[in-house]
Amino acid sequence: MLKTIESLGDLRGKRVLVRSDLNVPLDGTRITDDGRIRASVPTLTRLMDAGARVVVVAHLGRPKGAPEEKYSLRPVVARLGELLGTDVKFATDTVGESAQQTVASLQDGEVALLENLRFNAGETSKDESERRAFAEQLASLADAFVSDGFGVVHRKQASVYDVAELLPSAAGGLVQGEVESLRKVTDDPERPFVVILGGAKVSDKLAVIENLLTKADRLIIGGGMAFTFLKAQGHEIGTSLLDADQVDTVAGYLETAKANGVEIVLPIDTVVASDFGPDVDSEVVDSTAIPADKQGLDIGPKSAELFASKIADAKTLFWNGPMGVFEFEKFAKGTAAVAEAVASCEGFTVIGGGDSAAAVRTLGFDEGRFSHISTGGGASLELIEGKELPGITIIEEATK
After folding, report:
1. pLDDT of residue 231
2. DSSP per residue over 1-50, as a string?
3. DSSP string, 232-252
4. Which helix H or strand E contains 95, and what residues bound it?
5. Which residues contact 137 (CB under 8 A, 6 or more apart)?
6. C-alpha distance across the termini of the chain, in Å
7. Helices marked H in the chain — which ranges?
8. Catalytic annotation, residues
9. Do the Cβ atoms of 23 and 57 come closer than 8 Å?
10. Which residues 6+ apart lie within 8 Å of 270 measured at CB?
11. Is 162 in contact with 125 (CB distance < 8 Å)?
12. Region of 68 on the Ramachandran plot (φ > 0 left; ψ -120 to 50 alpha; else beta)
């Protein structure tokens, strides 16, 4: 069982370090999707209402262990404050003088955000002593720790794992909800259990597919990864995305699925083009006969209908990965059709974070039409794989 915030006792006047996931996409300094910030608000509000002095830590992008202005969390501060309905103080470093002074100035119920964790090499270091030293600096700023960044719980990092060993620790509401929803999918799904996988590469989801071949009733494959499946069946795929070194593996999956009675559903028609771009000329062709000089950029209308029919009766459904290049309006129809089918499904529906969650928001779907939208693509996939996640395990084991 995860330790919950209640286990931390009375938090009034206590400094609570919260690991949030505020890794939002930016266009310069403009936030283009604030979903992760919004998802962090309920736990932060709860701690504020409890009178805690809330110290939020997070990362943005992939800086190399040193400050880079383009990865500063400064653009996040204003939006977080708007959503919380209060001013959020900002420290220009993570464990230095600014952080120490900012935390020391907090009053009960106030919130501070510290600068990007990954501006410090110790955050992601593989050297346990370096990571531990940074975690000790973080822990010195607080009296308790709340893990609420689900998007990073699959990483053994200082602010995810080591800090939880150093302070009385608990899972925030976001992490708790994520784990409960995803375990509902993996541990005892109501059937039919339907899984939709898309995105670019099969290689990114090999372990997931392997695990699902013993659990799912139906596996719907779209996006770039579908072409490796079509190739494994011996079909021409033109210049479409291909994991050439995984064709034999995928052929084995098709055999295993057949032996296990798992239905594999592949696109029957594909939107193809000679080039990659938002306005290229395109046509719909049979998925088993893609011209040699064309590449698939979306599932076709017949595939969209087929996929929708295979989604309709699901009692449990998990979706990770778009059906095409949804960032281009011309090639977003397949992803939109699948999103509509999932939204209309009466079963328990989980969107597995990453591009799937971004697509649902970009395409204008009401998030309330889905049972759960995960904030962590990689973390949700690893839970579906059946892996133990370090950031979850440490909260379950915490005894302080």
Report:
1. 97
2. ---BGGGG---TT-EEEEE------EETTEES--HHHHHHHHHHHHHHHT
3. HTT-B-TT----GGGHHHHHH
4. none
5. 95, 122
6. 15
7. 35-49, 74-84, 97-105, 128-139, 163-166, 173-186, 206-212, 226-232, 247-260, 301-311, 333-344, 354-362, 377-385, 390-397
8. 36, 201, 354, 378
9. no
10. 240, 284, 285, 286, 287, 290, 296, 298, 299, 300, 303
11. no
12. beta
How far apart are the C-alpha atoms of 181 and 150, rounded to whole Å?
A: 12
Q: With 0.85 as the threshold, say if the pTM is over it.
A: yes
Read off the tokens for 58.
């997070």
pLDDT digits (tens, 9 = 90+) for 21-65: 999 999 999 999 898 999 999 999 999 999 999 999 999 999 999
Q: Decide: helix, strand or coil at residue 194.
A: strand
Closest by CA to 398, choosing from 151, 175, 89, is 175
What's the rounded Cα separation, in Å, for the pair 321 and 340?
Answer: 15
How do residues 90-118 score in pLDDT, each as one tens digit?
A: 999 999 999 999 999 999 999 999 999 99
Residue 398 above 60 pLDDT?
no
Cα distance between residue 55 and residue 360, in whole Å: 31
pLDDT of residue 397: 60
User: Which residues sit opposite 30 in a β-bridge?
Assistant: 27
Cα 340 to Cα 318: distance, rounded to the nearest angstrom: 14
Cα–Cα distance for residue pair 89/91, rounded to 1 Å = 7
Apex 23 CA angle, 22 and 24, nearest 5: 95
Token pair 């880079």 is at which residue?
A: 68
d(CA 384, CA 195): 10
Q: Compute the radius of gyration of the chain from its Cα atoms.
A: 22
Amino acid 166 reads L
Q: What CA dihedral angle connects 57, 367, 372 and 335, to 10 degrees?
A: -110
DSSP SS3 for 75: helix
Separation of alpha carbons 145 and 5, rounded Å: 9
Q: How far apart are CA 377 and CA 367, in angstroms?
A: 16
Q: What are phi and psi of 152, to 5 degrees?
A: -120, 5
